[in-house]
Amino acid sequence: MALLDQRTAVITGSAQGIGYAIAEALAAEGANIVIVDLDADAAGAAAARLNIGDRAAGVACNVADGADVEGVVRAAVDRFGSLDVFVNNAGITRDATMRKMTEQMFDEVIAVHLRGTWLGTRAASAVMREQEQGGSIVNISSISGKVGLLGQTNYSAAKAGILGLTKAAAKEVGFAGVRVNSVMPGLIRTPMTEGMREDILQTRLKEIALGRMGEAAEIAQAVLFMASDMSSYITGAVLEVTGGRHM
């Protein structure tokens, strides 16, 4: 039997990139998938691209808006009958040194990453704790939240905050069979990293024990592990998927 057969998974920020790779991995293991994106058309197109028919739906959502997030949760339950996996993946960057970073740039990143993850965790756990089977929430952090990266005081703060949020939430809802974990990606091959200056890329690769960038599919497999019963006795944990960077 597939690992997520008959279960329903919501993935925010999943119309492309790592989020879409996560959707593909969970769909391959039998899950019903709700693709969530700020752009309704992009969400719908990504859901269709999964090629799993009516097991996939695309929903527009601003993850920094509590009513939007609760609407996504209701839509998932109304369509598929349960909410078993919720992945808080949506994110943006507004990189700049502190001297050049505006308050708006700081607030926007905190709102999407940290507030968005809190809203998703709160809304998903409210449903999951009432289900006999509980559920799994997976929050996507970053190596930037562990070590801090130049020009990312906003992003590093948000991603570090997600780690604390994950552990606190896990303590609150564990009694109801709801697990809350975090996956921490390192340097992953995306359109953004593909455009990185060669000298910067080479410097970063020297920090990685495995000597290469990771692939979006490798993050997706880590999320699948945390989403499924393979990690049934794991909660409040942080799984680093970094190739050994910043050990």
How many angstroms does the end-to-end distance come to?
36 Å
- The CATH topology is Rossmann fold
What CATH architecture do you see? 3-Layer(aba) Sandwich
Low-confidence stretches: none
**Structural class estimated from helices and strands:** alpha/beta
Based on CA atoms alone, the radius of gyration comes out at 17 Å
* Average pLDDT over all residues: 97
The helix count comes to 9
Strand content: 15-25%
GO molecular function, one term: 3-oxoacyl-[acyl-carrier-protein] reductase (NADPH) activity
InterPro entries: KR_dom, NAD(P)-bd_dom_sf, Sc_DH/Rdtase_CS, SDR_fam
Organism: Flexivirga caeni
Keywords: Oxidoreductase
Short synopsis of the structure:
The chain has 247 residues and is of the alpha/beta class. The chain has nine helices and seven strands.
What does this structure look like?
Helix content is 45%, strand content 15%. The chain is α/β, with parallel strands linked by helices and 247 residues long. It has one domain (8-241): NAD(P)-binding Rossmann-like Domain (Rossmann fold, 3-Layer(aba) Sandwich), CATH 3.40.50. It has a seven-stranded parallel beta sheet with strand order 3-2-1-4-5-6-7, sandwiched between helices. α1 crosses α9, α3 runs parallel beside α4 and α4 packs parallel to α6. The N and C termini lie far apart (36 Å). It comes from Flexivirga caeni. It is an enzyme of class 1 (oxidoreductase). One of its GO terms (molecular function) is 3-oxoacyl-[acyl-carrier-protein] reductase (NADPH) activity. Its EC number is 1.1.1.100.
